[in-house]
Amino acid sequence: MNQKEQILKKIATDSEVIGIVGLGYVGLPLAVNFAEAGVHVIGFDKSKEKVDKINKGENYIGDIRDAVLREVVDKVNLRATTDFTKMKECDALIICVPTPLDKFRKPDMSYIESACIDIGRNMSKGTFISLESTTYPTTTENFMLPIIERESGMKHGDDFWLAYSPERVDPGNKNFHTRNTPKVMGALSEDGLEIGEALYKKAIDNIHKVSSPRVAEMVKILENTYRLINISLINELALLSGKMDINIWEVIEAAKTKPFGFQAFYPGPGIGGHCIPLDPFYLEHIAKQYDFDLSMIHTAGHINMRMPHYMYIKIATALNSQKKAVNGSKILFLGVAYKPNIDDERESPALEIMDITAHKGGEIYYNDPYIPHVKTNEGREYDSVELDKETLEGADCVVLTTNHKDFDVDFIKKHSKLIVDLRNMIDKKSEKVFKL
Amino acid sequence: MNQKEQILKKIATDSEVIGIVGLGYVGLPLAVNFAEAGVHVIGFDKSKEKVDKINKGENYIGDIRDAVLREVVDKVNLRATTDFTKMKECDALIICVPTPLDKFRKPDMSYIESACIDIGRNMSKGTFISLESTTYPTTTENFMLPIIERESGMKHGDDFWLAYSPERVDPGNKNFHTRNTPKVMGALSEDGLEIGEALYKKAIDNIHKVSSPRVAEMVKILENTYRLINISLINELALLSGKMDINIWEVIEAAKTKPFGFQAFYPGPGIGGHCIPLDPFYLEHIAKQYDFDLSMIHTAGHINMRMPHYMYIKIATALNSQKKAVNGSKILFLGVAYKPNIDDERESPALEIMDITAHKGGEIYYNDPYIPHVKTNEGREYDSVELDKETLEGADCVVLTTNHKDFDVDFIKKHSKLIVDLRNMIDKKSEKVFKL
After folding, report:
1. Cα(B89)–Cα(B168) distance, rounded to whole angstroms?
2. CA quadruple B314, B317, B321, B324: dihedral positive or negative?
3. What would be the CATH architecture of the domain defined by B307-435?
């Protein structure tokens, strides 16, 4: 039996071991899904804290039910470790590490590089490897493959298989989660594609195979670039609409009545999260290597980067209408999460607006029912304050930055002196309400 | 009974007369819909040819069934005229005139202006006026109203009512036509909105009312700007993908498997038709008055304008692979319509690519089953040639510019020496096929 037949047989008999590298909001749900399907899963992470939590059955991801995590840990279908030498016990290794941007908005490939080095040094022959992190097209073939071959001394196709299959997790989405979101996969060889499909089918209902890893890499970037440019467009139109005395939210609601050829996007104080603000710039980066300027992404990125500054100006304008300056005013931000009803403040525009406002002398505080403590990009730290009558009445300006369902809009409106509504949370016009 | 009560009573008793100004692809279907609903309709157009055709029951619009037009003309529910003094017989006047761009890509408001002058000089008191043409926000209030009041000597609110309700006609759409496509409407006064709704309800199933004409104006521009920027994005990504050896069509098919947050757009040789290439620049134009640069539209417009040039380069590259120059080569274009299965070549990118290629010495000819004769932007005129074996074999290069369903792709592939496929019509890879 050759390597390929061996791994396919293990998969067919549920005797394979899958290693998930990186136990964040992508890796942990995937690990749990495989474990639930009866597969033996080892979770790898450099954070001892995360590993200990998982092994104690303590969940730290919003999209996973606590009971399910406890169950798969109790059954020993899932265990976590910081010991990367245990990769040699795995038949498949799925990489779910971060791909952030550095301070100059260039791809930070260090997590993928580190995972590839760990895998190359520790894996056994006959391992299937898949990358799930969003990255620029050609990463799997031109960046990962040489590192893994160099570190392992093994040869792709004979000793291991490499594939790319992007995660499509949408945190907080009630309808679509890991299992029922179709998964795109491209592999370096037909064998790899076959093995990958057999494997992923246990945790994911539908696998959509494409002809190469670079096609799959482009798919994920296209999906998020689509969102970036449409949000940027509507943000730009929102700013113009403000000047033209047009309610952009009313415009969008009316445009949505078109039964074909339109998808609604909503303006906001900027784009947050770990995908949309970052992914398109991975593509912009690699495009340079092909002497190509991606002008749509560039323009969208520019609008998006400027939004927090425009939002600061909205706040200053609102205060000015009451003859107040930002400098010395008490400004309460409601919501620091980057989208409603989740506990994630990564890349949240609220943090940047808070920094700008604090920098100009505003006295800043915030409430977020999901996030008790934050640290801004510039290192300012705040604890969430009580959201009560006194807090609202004491603020010179209340800024609605995240539309959490928990916020009692009528209560907020009643007790605030001045409101800057960046999320269309307040319907009625009022002199004390300024809208994006 | 005041003016408002009078017109509402006429509408309620089906005794009103509606004048439709401009009998093109928007005005004529609307006129037919009203006439079908039993309303007495007068169609106004400056073209004696169109007017004569209609009065003879001869249809010239693809989306209207010939029998329906004949029926409403026979019943004398619809008659057409070039005599604009007959506007005085109308209780309502609906303007469906073109809003093109001039040679410097600035709004050409002359058709709206002319319609407003005709209306102002001819209408009776108590007329409801609605504009359907796409235009920049504030047109109804700031451009039309002063002209109509000046020419008529009447006063809005007392003597007439003015509204804006954009057409959403999608030529060739089999599912959505004038009646079942919801209609957005904003009016200058509450009375106007009430009258407009009562009137339009006879021809349109759903009326979505908004707070002002400028909101309705922005709605239409948003819908088409959304399409412009998404097509421009995918065109830009298609050009990059070509360089990166990525099949963009495969990428789009895979991205479409994402069950939320994605809408597919397809690349092509440029954007044609009478809406998407034009409408966003109406907004760009008015934005300048508010000291505002619409960078997304600007960038998208730039990509779109350059597409025919890139397509010319594709043709030159394909010919070069067979050691041929464009200069002196026979180049056959298949399809000059701007989209499949319609007979409309307005703003079609095919015409521009033909001009560029002819300019470089290519010997140009074309076939389009829907369009027997064309005149290019630079004034070259061509008749559609027979699409047979000899024609295909005689061409040095066959360029697929419109994906009409009538084209027999296998036949074309079999008999062509070289194909440049700009519409993803040919699946299989072959050395003689070059794809966008």
Report:
1. 28
2. positive
3. 3-Layer(aba) Sandwich (3.40)
| Residue that is written with structure tokens 């005709």 in the block | B118
Average pLDDT over residues A210-217: 98
Q: Which residues contact B339 (CB under 8 A, 6 or more apart)?
A: B171, B172, B272, B273, B402
CB contact under 8 A, A219 and B247: no
pLDDT of A62 over the 80 cut:
no
Strand order in the sheet with B78-81: B78-81, B40-44, B17-21, B92-95, B127-131, B160-164, B183-187, B207-209
Sorted by where each begins, the domain ranges of chain B are 3-209, 307-435
Q: What are phi and psi of B375, to 5 degrees?
A: -125, 125
B427-433 contacts, C-beta under 8 A, 24 or more apart: B431/B321
Chains A, B: CB contacts within 8 A come to: 183
Which helix (H) or strand (E) segment holds residue B381: the answer is: strand B381-383
How much is the pLDDT for A436? 85
- From B168, B255, B295, residue closest to A299, measured CB to CB: B295
In terms of C-beta density within 10 A (0-12 exposed, 13-18 middle, 19 or more buried), how is residue B429 classed? exposed
Dump the DSSP string for B37-83: TT-EEEEE-S-HHHHHHHHTT----TTS-HHHHHHHHHTTSEEEES-
CA dist., res. A435 & res. A251, Å (int):
14
**pLDDT at residue A282 in the model:** 94
Does the pTM exceed 0.90?
A: yes
Alpha carbon distance, N-terminus to C-terminus of chain A:
65
pLDDT class for A247, splitting at 50, 70, 90? very high
In the predicted structure, residue A194 carries a pLDDT above the cut 90: yes
Let me know: does A108 contact A102? Beta carbons within 8 Å. yes
Query: Residue A347 pLDDT more than 90?
Result: no
Of 3.20.20.150, 3.40.50.720, 3.40.50.2000, 3.30.200.20, the CATH number of A3-211 is 3.40.50.720
Q: Which residues contact B96 (CB under 8 A, 6 or more apart)?
A: B20, B21, B22, B23, B24, B26, B27, B30, B132, B133, B167
Residue A73's pLDDT band (cuts 50, 70, 90):
confident
C-alpha distances out from residue A274 to A170, A332, B112, Å: 11, 25, 48
pLDDT grade, residue A343 (50/70/90)? confident
Encoded tokens for B308: 């025919």
Q: Residue A328: what pLDDT?
A: 97
| Chain B CB within 8 Å of residue A233 CB | yes
Q: Tell me yes or no: is domain B3-209 CATH 3.40.50.720.
A: yes
Residue ranges in chain B whose pLDDT is less than 50: none
Tell which A residues from 289 to 318 touch B, by Cβ distance under 8 Å: 290, 292, 294-296, 298-300, 302-303
Q: Tell me the average pLDDT across A324-351.
A: 93
> So what's the pLDDT on residue A344?
86
A275 is catalytic: yes
Q: What is the ipTM of this complex?
A: 0.92
- Give the tokens for residue A260: 């074909």
pLDDT band for A72, please (50, 70, 90 cuts).
confident
Examine domains A3-211 and A306-435 and report if their fold is the same. yes
Q: What is the pLDDT of residue A51?
A: 96
Answer yes or no: do B208 and A251 touch at CB < 8 A: no
**Would you call A262 and B295 a contact, using CB atoms and an 8 Å cutoff?**
no
pLDDT in tens, A366-404: 999 999 999 998 999 999 999 999 999 999 999 999 999
Collect all residues of chain A within an 8 Å Cβ-Cβ radius of residue B251.
210, 215, 218-219, 222
CATH class of segment(s) A306-435: alpha beta
Residue B264 is classified by DSSP as -
- Helix and strand numbers (H, E) in chain A are 14, 15
